[in-house]
Amino acid sequence: MSLDDKDHMTTHQIGRRRLLQCVGAGGLTTVLAGCAGEEPEGLDDEEGEEDDSLVYATTISPSTIDPMRASDNFENIYTVNVYDSLLNYTDESPPELAPGLAEDWEVGDDDQTYEFFLRNDAMFHNGDSVTADDVVYSFERMLELQDGLSWMWTDTIGTDSVTAADETTVEIETERTFAPFLFTLPYLPIVNESELDANDEDWLEQNDAGSGPYELVEHEREERLVLQRFDDWWGEWPSDDLFDEVVLEIVPEEGTVTGMMSNESADITDEWLSVESYEELASLDHVFVSDEVTFSPLYVFMHTQREPLDDVNVRKAISYAVDYQQIVDDILLGNADQMQGPLPSEMWGHNDDVIQYEQDLDRAQEYLDDSTYDAEDIELTYTYVTDLTVTENIGLLLQTNLNELGINLELEGAPWTRITDMVTSQDTTSDMHAIYLSFSYVDPDTFLYPAWHSSSHGSWESPAWYENEEVDQLLDDARTEIDVDQRTEYYHEAQEIIADDTPALFVVNEAELYGVNERVGGYVDNGLVGYSKAFWRLYDES
Fold this sequence. Notes:
The protein is globular. With about 550 residues, the protein is α+β, with helices and mostly antiparallel strands. It starts with 15 loop residues before the first helix and ends with a strand. The chain has 16 helices and 21 strands. The chain has a six-stranded mixed sheet. Helix 9 runs antiparallel to helix 11. It is about 30% helix and about 20% strand.
């Protein structure tokens, strides 16, 4: 069952101005109860002015709004809407590269030399023109801070890699061939060098130095950020009915978010509400729940270097014991697809021919019989992130499934910070870890290399401690091969080997859920951190 099985309807809305009129000095939570019983209005103030505000209600507060320090989804939503990058992403799934500040680019025959040609009509929010020197400065600042997403360019960009050939031409010579390089560039925000030189390091925590479609006009920490549409932005707007103002409203209480969506004082939610809250939102006539399955794969990693999971027959027995369909239908209410191998099927390079495990207890018993272990001697620990009910419920189901083979499974909840410490050594890594991998850039490398290359051991993305020299070589070759067809062949072969070795349960690629007001036109979830909330692509169709 999908959460979005009802017909969509368009209604009127309560705008931010009206919300703030209601709030007054009483605080948001108190006021919502007062607003909730009123009939929605299509006009938001006494003058009858049409509402032109879009409100994004989130339970998450950013730890920074400095674009070079941004790492989580909220921080990147802010960054991609306020700052431009050399290149951009489309809203397709999977997303494709599109021109950004660079309207054209060339790649040298050595696959390490790049030339970017900047558009001549881009300007920062303070009126300064965007120049090649600003691009050089932005790379230097990103590398100097070593924060946020700077890891994307580690070992690829050096101190002298980026230069300005002239005012609108940027040359980049990478320190190695790195096939996904272009796909990382939409995550490198370009900042105004002169503004940062004129202010102290913390200035960006209250101000912006960008050239993006929206500019920051208000920041109240742990309460809200208010963005105003930048009229001189170089990009194309999708409609005449634009949102001139976007409010990122920080609302810690989940019930308040659903209340705001109910009385139409919010237009979009984040993805961290409970399934029950999304079901409540889906029941509202003026709200639909976006439930696109994009790139949120869940794995249960198995410790391949510890008995009894060092025996591939035990791992295969477990893989055939799991009721994947019950996970999809009963735990995730249909908002997920079962994984087929280690790469989400939505990503290019996915191998549709790799084995997809299904529950088959007879085959599970056969593999267990072929192993060197007796079921009654197998005791395993499954570790999940505390308070993450989906992975806890999956653990309970695994416990029941494995009990049918005579395998004892203990469940252990742990804070995320403890899990990241546990997986730094083989001794402290749990037998089984339930972990979602994140989607950083549009390339198979972002999922396969961190999880399955032996050089990645000790990270939270590699708790299987998987070792296979052939897979290592294939993933290395794919990173430095530019030809896409050849890269696809490398990835196909690697997926086949990994799936057959079963160092993990490839559980589900889960839909990320968002509540969206029907009046919001142009909404598409492309699955990318930050870019799934490209406010400049939205418009009011009420």
